[in-house]
Recover the amino acids of this structure.
């Protein structure tokens, strides 16, 4: 996830915390190292993310406080 300014430029030096969540309440959604990461120079990296219950219509939302758009939701996917 990248923290960008109004012009779409990555914000160097930004270290705010970005948190991922899913829209489904069934099963477990997890990422290696946890669902919250501090950005480094405007980039928060997540790996090993897994939704352990099959289904369709899952989405992942990234949230960070202090932004004009505090959260961004990705496209729906099927497990």
């Amino acid at each position: 996830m990248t923290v960008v300014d109004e012009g779409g430029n990555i914000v160097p030096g930004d270290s705010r915390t970005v948190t991922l969540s899913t829209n489904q309440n069934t099963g477990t959604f997890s990422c290696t190292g946890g669902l919250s990461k501090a950005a480094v120079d405007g980039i928060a990296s997540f790996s090993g993310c897994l939704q352990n219950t099959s289904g369709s219509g899952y989405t992942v939302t990234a949230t960070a406080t202090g932004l004009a758009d505090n959260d961004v939701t990705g496209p729906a996917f099927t497990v």
Notes: The mean pLDDT is 89.
